[in-house]
Amino acid sequence: NMPEIKEGHACMVFAVDDVYEATKTLKxxxxxLKEEPRQVCEEGDHVGMSADFVDxxxxxxxxxxxxxxx
Length: 70
Hints:
Strand content: over 45%
Distance between the termini: 35 Å
Order of helices and strands: EHEEE
Largest sheet: 4 strands, mixed
Strand order of the largest sheet: 1-4-3-2
Number of strands: 4
């Protein structure tokens, strides 16, 4: 059961080296993602990928990394 998301509150974003590895580790530790990694920005030959999840207190958190375009 996912906790209720607190609407109108800030989202803490954690910059990681590899968003795919970070989400794999989060899931292996029992974290349920609200969203799988998705493109949120683009710069040159890279895209920004972000995945969201909610902590036990209902705070929105996200992991983010830039990855080469495919």
